[in-house]
Structure formats: C-alpha cells, structure tokens
Amino acid sequence: MRAGVARQAASAWPMRYHHGVTAPFQPHAFQTDDPRLESIAEKVSSGTRLDGDDALALYRASDILAVGWLANSVRERLHGDKTYFNVNRHINPTNVCIAACRLCAFGRKKDTPGAYTMALEEAWQTAASGYSEAVTEFHIVGGLHPDLPFEYFLDLVRGLKERFPQVHLKAFTMVEVAYLARRAKLSIAETLRELKDAGVDSLPGGGAEIFADRIRHIICDHKIDGDQWLDTARLAHQIGLRSNATMLYGHIEGDEDRVDHLLKLRALQDETGGFQTFIPLAFHPDNTPLQHLPKTTGMLDIRQIAVSRLVLDNFPHIKAYWQMLTPRIAQISLRFGADDLDGTVIEEKIYHDAGATTPQGMRREELVRLIREAGRVPVERDTLYRPVTRTETSVTVAV
Ligand code: SF4
C-alpha cells in the first residue's frame, strides 16, 4: 500500500532550494505509524471519497506530516507545482452594520465612533487610488447598513463597471445578498439577478463562518443561518454567478462542527459545481467580544488547510489567505494542500480591525518570491483562474 501511495505522488516536492540553487528532489514515500491514516491513504491513493469519520481522524491525527503528505499529493495531482495569486484591491464601502456578531471587530453601529459609510464618489475614488492596469479584481464586502437603499449598491457596482470595465467585480457575501433582498423586498433570486445585471461578476465566500446552529447562535446570531447561506449560494450558482466558500475556525467550534461544515459545502458543490475556491479563515479575536479566546496556532492553521484539501475533493482550489495566516504560514501551506495565496489585496480592513498584524497589502514581487521560495511555480490568475499574461505594456487574460 505505501509504495502505491508513493507512486501516486511521485512528482511530490520535485525541487529544493539550497543557497539559491535548485536541484532535483527525491520525494520520500508515505510513512506513518497511525493505522487510521494508513486506511485514509489507501482511499486518497485510489481517489475514493473520504467520509466524516475520516475527516475527524485527520483533525485528530498526531502525525501532522503524514496528513500534510496526503494533502500535498492531492494538491500536486490537481495542480502540479502551480500556485495561483491575483492582483486585487479590497473595497469596504461601509462598516455600519445592524448585526452585532461576537466574532467581529469591523462592524459599527451607526453614529458611533469609527463608523463610516462611503459616498459613491468616495467608493469609486477608493477603487481608483492605487489602481493600475495590473489590478484584475475588486473584492467588495461591507456591513449590513440599516439605511442604504439597494439602489446605492447597484449604483456602486454600475459606477465601478463604467470606470473599470476590465476589472472583475467580486462583490457581496451571501449574508449581504440576503440582507439586501430583505431591504429591497425582493426574492434572493431577483436580488442576485439585479446585482448581476448591474455588473457583479462573482461572489466572495464570506459569512459562512460555521454552519452548526449551536455555534452560530453564539458567534453570529443575527446572520442568516447556515441553510440560508447555502440556499443563497445555490441560487447564485444557478443564475451563473460563481462564488467562493469560507469557514471561520479556531474560536469555539469543535472538530465535528468543522467536519459538518466541510461536508455541507461538498454536498452543495456536487449539486452546482459553482464554488471555485475554499478559504479556511483563522479567527482573529482581538477587539471582538471573544477576545479572551486564544489565537489559532500554526499547527492548527496548517492542519486546516490539509484537511480541507483532502475532504473537499470537488473544490478546484484551496486558498491560504496570507492576510489571516501570515505570509510565513501561508507559504508553508503550499506544501500542505494549498494552491492559492490570494492576492496583493491593498488596504485590508476587516481582519486588521480584529488584530491582524500582517501588512495591509503585498507587492506582486513579494508574492512571487514567497511562492518561488516554496519551490512552486507562480501563476498570476484572474478571479476565474484564467492565467494572466503581463508584459511591460499590456495585460492579457487567457480565455
Ligand atoms: S461580521 Fe459582518 S454581519 Fe456581523 S457584525 Fe461584522 S460586518 Fe456585521
């Protein structure tokens, strides 16, 4: 069995970097003393889907290197050495929010210190500041504002499309879409269609948090529940909007809750095929009502990436979001199942309000260096994972 698994991942870790010199790297065979992981390795080798018990065993296995080896073998089977990144800009039009999620350090009540709402001109100006031909995506999310009409968001999107027609607009989480539908007295499907007609190209994956009701009631009681999040994603996919999916981990959830979350996402992906990327989000407790909780550890972060890669066998991509994980952990994750590092970002607010100490953006060259030093091949992509070719004078997206 072990030899079989070793053959499967024969391309694993093909290069190493030693004092700047690359050399062929001989992969080691799969080895573990954990019999539970041996049976999981059989499944991974043969392409057999893992079940909930397997997922739990992966969370609880002490042999993290064996878990990582398996995740890496799947990652390389799917993507070889390619590691994706994009050049994007985050825009958070407002932090005013009617919800009071205990997980959140970003949202503010209206008229309280630190609350802000951008006028449309200001939001367009934010998009323009630091903009260059290199930017291929605007990532737009914000609070659930009690007064802003649906028209504000449609105008925001229309104005961005008018000014930056070549930039992909990845805008509004399932939670925001459901809230806008309520405010506009439209169905979710109608709301999604109007957003799409205005210029939204795809949806980000936020707001999923943890689907388990018991946990969701404590950390984000005012949000749509897990089933509503999944229903909204299903409708988005059905009208042709791709999306991402996330999971917030490292707060009060248990291993079973994480497994439940992953299996629900996998089931919906079987149905629609509309998810592009799964992004495990490490909880940052600072400045939230849950700030007594400890931060996640590197071991948990890396394990979460690996388990995600192994369980979500129908998700094309697993992203190590460097803003939350730190560039160092994100880089190591590229050997534990991740094939995407997210992007240059420019001015991230949400996790920095919650105490993230990472820079608010990263230059393209730095991202490329992180990927190359992990022995991977950087591939700049657009939001839909089409390769972007860049010369000194032009940017081309392969279609
Ligand atoms: S997590 Fe989102 S919905 Fe909850 S308070 Fe923060 S901004 Fe509002």
Question: Would you mind describing this structure in some detail?
Answer:
This protein is α/β, with parallel strands linked by helices. Helix content is about 40%, strand content about 15%. The protein has a four-stranded parallel beta sheet with strand order 7-8-9-10. A three-stranded parallel beta sheet has the order 11-3-12, with helices on one face. Helix 4 (about 65-80) crosses helix 12 (about 300-310), helix 7 (about 175-185) packs across helix 8 and helix 12 (about 300-310) packs parallel to helix 14. The protein is globular. Iron/sulfur cluster binds near residues 97 and 104. The site of iron/sulfur cluster has 12 residues, from loops.
The shape, in one word, is: globular
Number of strands: 14
Structural class: alpha/beta
Order of helices and strands: HEEHHHEEHEHEHHEHHEHEHEHHEHHEEE
Each distinct ligand: iron/sulfur cluster
State the helical fraction: 40-55%
The radius of gyration over CA amounts to 21 Å
Mean residue pLDDT: 89
| Order of strands in the sheet with most strands | 7-8-9-10
Query: Which regions are unreliable across 5 or more consecutive residues at pLDDT < 50?
Result: 1-26
Tell me the major beta sheet: 4 strands, parallel
Percent of sequence in beta strands: 5-15%
Treating each run of at least 4 consecutive H or I residues as one helix, how many helices?
16
Separation, N- and C-terminal Cα atoms = 41 Å
